[in-house]
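#onboarding

Welcome to the new folks! Below is a worked example of what a typical request in this channel looks like: someone posts a single protein sequence, and someone else replies with the predicted structure as tokens. Don't worry about understanding the tokens yet, we'll cover that in week two.

Example request:
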Amino acid sequence: MNTGSKRVQLIASGDQRLSANQRCWPAQQELERTLAAALSAAGYELVRAHQYNAAEKHGFISSQRQGMEVFRTIDPNAPLIVAEAVWQYSHHVLAGLTTHRGPILTLANWSGTWPGLVGMLNLNGSLTKAGVKYSTLWSEDFTDEYFTSRLNTWLATGSCNHERRHVRELRDVKLPAEARELGAKLAAELKGNKAIMGVFDEGCMGMFNAIIPDHLLHPTGVFKERLSQSALYYETTQVSDAEARAVYDWFLSHGMKFHTGPNHAEHLTEAQILLQCKTYIAAVRLADDFGCATIGIQYQQGLKDLLPASDLVEGTLNNRERPPVRSRDGQRVLYENEPLPHFNEVDECAGLDGLITYRVQSALGQPVENTLHDVRWADKDHSGTTSEYVWVFEISGSAPPAHFIGGWGGAEGFRQPAMYFPNGGSTLRGISKPGEIVWSRIYVEDNALAIDLGRGSVVKLPRAETERRWQATTPEWPIMHAVLHGVSRDQLMAQHKSNHIQVNYATSAAEADRSLAVKAAMAESLGLRVRLCGNCGV
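Example response:
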């Protein structure tokens, strides 16, 4: 690493939506201020590689084209920090990073607010898939020893590492024979009979890491049906008002509470909810038309300008107990007594994971509802209920009420924030119930599919502590208080290759261990590289 100039370039990838970039810009400014101080203390100067845009009132790279233009002005051999305090679209900077020859450091502030951690993990997963070498760091204030020691190492050598002793290759672990046999059987069934993954437009919010190339997906027995959001919009317009009202009434009769108001621009309205009910019916019918075993809706870009958000749709689809949807002729109930696994933000890695999980849980007679969450943030429990470090897993769409305390009776609907969703729409909010979980993530590495698997517990925290965590993140969204077994905060951040994490419940710790073992065996038999993280019970 050439450190003669003692200067380090910085870029900041942002959202594609102007409202989000403007709202989140102060958090990015604070990150860059504290980071500059940390570099100054190390004897280096932090230099922005692109300027603040006075007309747009932010300093983010907000498009792929802009990112390419910025990289034309960057020394390709110089050290480069990608600093994130916000959710960002990785494709804005991915093109330039794939050809950058100097050392790359991805970096985020330890905050759940906008959130940079989620944006950085998405970029890390995208760089891993693209085969780009990078180092990564995170910190609350950029003064702690863990951060400063590794920053100094990166400045001196061009790379920094993290301890990953919690990760074991499955080939080094002895699984129970019963689990290996069942996992292999389930894999053979999937590869032999095959399944269809319905994708309503690929590439949501620049998530390059969320797209599985066909040549890697097909050997698992899963094939994509590439559908269009325009088809989903059209089908939504064909659903009758009476059908939508019946779904809405079902929600109310099962105890869900909607927080509505009169103003479309500011409040959740009944009209928004009824449109979501139509979208729910439309999604199920289109999935049935094409024989899909799982579907993913792009969720933000595109449909947000035509319809309310799909959160309520997604979480409902992932729940076994949900409003019945009949075929257009009324003769059949579609996907009766079962969920239609949905992967939020068309994250195909989560889609494959969700489908595998559904089949494993069904075979074991365990709860089949599963979902992805954002790896949003983590903090010590301020209530003193537990000494464990508790993660905030949180996603606006996809979480099923079966995961909530009280089920549908514990579900609430709030308007999606206007800066992301001009047409509003109800979220499906709840507090995840205490219990034993299996967590996982499928990702692309070295032109192959891999999966990390681990165990955890969901803990129940006092309402005041839950509210504190909600206010530090997004209070409209469902929340899971997760404790990971044998995996520290920094170990998860060092190893995890995505902004998303997949979770499912089991009825006991022993059943969760069994579920993990069968899932590991099935994934291996499908050709995935399997890694076990932390204490997995095997």
